[in-house]
Amino acid sequence: MQTRTGKLGEVRVRRLISRAIYMMSGAIGVLAFLYPFFMPTVSPAPLDMAHSQDAPLMTVTLVGLALIALLIELQGQSISAKTVALLGVLIAITSVLRFIETAMPMPGGFSPIFAPIILAGYVFGARFGFLMGAFTLLVSGLVTGGVGPWLPYQMFTAGWAGLTAGWLARGISWLTRSSNGVPSSNSLRLDILVLCLFGFVWGLLYGAIMNIWFWPFAVGPVEQTWSPGTSLGQTLSRYAAFYLITSLAWDMMRAIGNVVLIFLLGAPTLRVLNRFRRRFYFEVNPHAGRSTIT
Amino acid sequence: MQAARPSLDARAWSFWAVTVMIAASLARNPLYTALVLLVTIIVSATNVPVHNNRAILSPLRFALIVIPLSALFNCLTIHLGQHVLFRLPTWIPLLGGPVTAEGLVFGAINGLALTAIFASFAVFNHVTPVRDLVRLTPRAFHEVGVVISIALTFIPQTMRSLERIRQAQAVRGHRMRGLRDWLPIVIPLLVSGLERSMGLAEAMVARGYGAVYEKAQLLRTQALLALGTLALLGGWLLWLFVLLQRGIAMAVMLVGAGIVLGAVWQAGRVVTHTVYKPRQWTAPDTLVVLGCVLTLVILLLPLPLDRNTLYYSPFPSLSWPSFDVFVGLGFLGLLVPAMIGRGGQQPI
Predict the structure, then answer these.
(1) Residues 6+ positions from B103 with CB-CB distance below 8 Å
(2) Complex ipTM, two decimals?
(3) A280 in Cβ contact with A90 (< 8 Å)
(4) If exposure means fewest CB atoms within 10 Å of the residue's CB, which of A57, A255, B74, B116 is most exposed?
(5) Domains and CATH numbers, chain A
(6) Chain B residue with the nearest C-alpha to that of A261
(7) pTM, rounded to two decimals
C-alpha cells in the first residue's frame, strides 16, 4: 500500500516538473520571438553599437537550448512504437510536399506543409502536433538543405501550429458534444470551417513570427527596424510598418493556400486520420475486469 | 567504387558554419563582410561536389534577390542622410521623403551580411551528407533519432508511391487540372503511408522496441531539465529587464546552459549507441577548428587591435569604411577548409 502511495506521489511530482519544463521552455520560445518588443530603453551610447548584435546571437542559443530541453522531456514520456512509426511516416509524406514546393516554387509564401501539420495536430493531439510540426521542419530542412540559424525558430513555430491545433480540437469537441457525449452530425463541417480559419491565422502568424528571428539582425532603418533604446510602442509600430511593407502580401499567399488546401482536402484527410487513430490507439487491457478499448 | 564522402567531419563543418554566422553578424563593416563572403565562396568552390542534387537556393540567386530588395526597402523607407538621390511626395505614408544614398548603402550592407550567413549554411548543407547530420544526434535524442531515421528512410518510398499512384490515376483517365484533382492522389498516398506505419510499428514491437531499457525519464534528469530551463529563463529576464545586472544574468544563463547540457548527457547515459564504421576525427578537422578559433578570438576577445573598424555606419554622410589588416587576417582563419579541401569527393 505504501509503495503504491509512493508511486502515486512520484507520478504527481513528475507531472508537476513536466508541466514546469513545458511552461518555461515555452516562455523562452515566446520571449525569443518577442524580446525586441520588451527591450528596455537604454541610452544610445556608442558602446551599444559594439554589443547591438549580441542579443540576436544569444537568442538563437537560448532557443536551441529550450528546444533541446523540451524535446528531451517530450520523448522521455514513453513514446510508443506506434506513435514513433506514425510520426515518422507522416513527416516523410509532409517532407515530400516540401520537396515538391522547393522544386516547383509556389506563389509567395504558399507552402503545402502547414495543412498536414494542422490536421495531424487536430486529430492526434497537441503533443503529437508539436512533434509533427517541429520534426517536419527539421527533416525537410535536412533533405532540402534548409539547415541554418533559422531552423530552431522554424521548428518552434511549426511546432506551435501543431500544438495549438491539438488544443483547438479539444475546445471544439467540448463545444460540440451533446449531453450524452456524442459528436453532433454537423461536426465535420464545423471542423473544416474552424480549421480553415485556423489555417489562415497561422499562415499570417508564421510569417510574422519568423520575421523576428532576423529583424533585430538588420539594425537598419530607424523607422522600421529594431534597435536598442526604443520603447514598446515605437517598436510595435516599426514592426507593423516593416511587416506591412515586406511580408503581408507574401504571407497572405500562405494563409490563402492553407485555407484552400484545408477546404478542398481537409474533410477526406480528417476522415482517414480519424479512422487510423481509432486503429492505432486500439488497446486491449487483459488485467482489467473486462477488456477495455482505449 | 567512387562515392561522395565529405573531406571533413560534420562537427568541424558545423563549427565552421556557426563561426561564419557569428563573424557576419558581429562585423557590420562591408569590407569585412565582403571578405567573409569571398572566403565562403572559395571554400564552396573547393569543397562542394559538382554533382549535388540537394535542392538549395543558390547563394548567388539569394544575393541577387536579397541585396537589391534590402537596399530598395531601406532607401525607400529611411529618409536620413546627406546625399539625396530623389524625393518622393510626402503624402505617401512611410515612403514619402528624400531617398538617400546612405539608406541605399545601409540596406545593401544588411543584405550582404544575410547573404554571407546564407552562403555559409549553403556550403554546410552541400558538404555534409544527411546520414552524417543524423549521426550527430546526441544519444539522449534516441527516439527523436529513430523518428528522423524513419522519416528519411520513407521519403524515397513515399516519392515512389506518389509516382505510382499518379501513373495509376492517369491510366484511369485522371488529369491534373486544379488543386481539387490532387485529392485522388493525396488520399491513397496518405492511406498507403499509414498502412505502412502500422506494419512498421508491429515489426518494431516484435523486435522488442522500447523493451530493452527503462523508458520513463529518470526523475533526476527531469529535475535537471527543470532547473536548467528555470536558470535560462531567469537569467534572460534579468538580462532584458535589469540592465545593471547583465554580468550576473550572463552567469546565470551559462549555469542554466550547463545544467541543460548535463541533463542531455544524463539522459544519453541510459541509451546504448552503436555506429557502423564511425568516422575518425582527423588532423584536418582539428585545423579547421583552430582556424575558426582564431577568427573568434579576433572578434570576441579584447586584443590590442582596432576593433572599432568592425562597425560601420553610412549615416549621416557616406564615408569609406576603415579596414584593419590584422582584423582582416583574423577572418582568413575561416579559409582553412579551402586549403585542405579535397573537392568534397574521395573514394571509400
Answers:
(1) A221, B74, B75, B76, B77, B78, B79, B80, B81
(2) 0.77
(3) no
(4) A57
(5) 79-280 (1.10.1760.20)
(6) B179
(7) 0.77
